Amino acid sequence: MLYLELMTTEGCHLCDHAIMLLQAVLRPGDAEVDLVDIAFDDQLLEHYATRIPVLRAPVSGKELGWPFGESELRLYLEDVGAD
Question: Would you say the pTM of this structure is higher than 0.90?
Answer without folding.
Answer: yes
